[in-house]
Amino acid sequence: MGGAGSGGYKNSPGDTETHSAWDIIAQDPESGQKLAQVRCKYCAREMAQHTSRQRAHLLTCQQYLEAMKETGIENSITRQAADPAGFFKNSKVLQAFGEPKPPKVLKMAEHSTAARIQALALAEAHISVERIHEVTGIDPKIVAGLRKLARDRGYDPNVSMVLKEEYVWDPPNSNKPRGRPKKRRAEDDLDPELTSTSPRAPPAFGDGDTSLPPGDWNFIIPVTGATLS
After folding, report:
1. CA-CA distance, 91 to 183, in Å (whole number)?
2. Once rounded to an integer, what is the mean pLDDT over residues 11-21?
3. Which residues contact 151 (CB under 8 A, 6 or more apart)?
4. Could you give phi then psi for residue 3, rounded to 5 degrees?
């Protein structure tokens, strides 16, 4: 199937409504016309088969709009004719007619380092921002930010036009953490062993305890040859 210029997208929503309002005119083999000719069923207007132009005609064809109104038919064409501004607020309507969605504008953090350097190099070569956006997908505002960021980090094209990765790295996040810092209690700075409330067993000194200085520390010496009176 062909594209919009050849009357294609016959199975997509909305185009069936458009083509159903037209008759295809038998083409003369000797005419040399590349596109088939069509005729409006309601006003007999003839034109080349072109979906967008056929639909544009129906939007202003009073005979067609009156016929749809009399038969109680409401479709995308009649809704667009009645309220053009409100009709195009719905992005699904644009997708129904094969219209591409607007490209998403990526933030700097969503672009690779290579793409940033490429965009910066093109900008320094005085390439238009439109062409830079077409090649790299980077928005003109982000390109301007990249140039300022690179110069803030020491890039000087008058000295050297060599671009370094650190010129285009993400700037540090200066956002402060939310909320107030948690207050520290005095006991948080103390040794847990000192603040423990559980009773501690006294140290035990056994025969093999080597923590005492040398000497005889056994005070319980049996007395022999003497009695207490």
Report:
1. 51
2. 73
3. none
4. -85, -165
Q: Which long-range contacts (CB under 8 A, 24 or more apart) does 111-120 make?
A: 111/136, 111/137, 111/138, 111/142, 113/165, 113/168, 113/169, 116/146, 116/168, 117/163, 117/165, 117/167, 117/168, 119/143, 119/146, 120/146, 120/147, 120/150, 120/163, 120/167, 120/168
Q: Are 97 and 15 in contact (CB under 8 A)?
A: yes
Residue 160 has pLDDT above 60, yes or no: yes
Total length of the chain: 229
Is the pTM value of this prediction over 0.90? no
Query: Are residues 46 and 37 in contact, defined by beta-carbon separation less than 8 angstroms?
Result: yes
Ranges of beta strands (E only) in 67-223 are none
DSSP 8-state code for residue 4 = G
| For range 97-126, the mean pLDDT | 76
pLDDT tier at 12, thresholds 50, 70, 90 = very low
**Single-letter code of the amino acid located at 16:** T
- For residue 14, give the amino acid letter: G
Cα 58 to Cα 77: distance, rounded to the nearest angstrom: 7
From CA 113, how far away is CA 120, in angstroms rounded? 11
Please state whether beta strands 37-40 and 22-25 pair in parallel, antiparallel, or not at all (unpaired): antiparallel
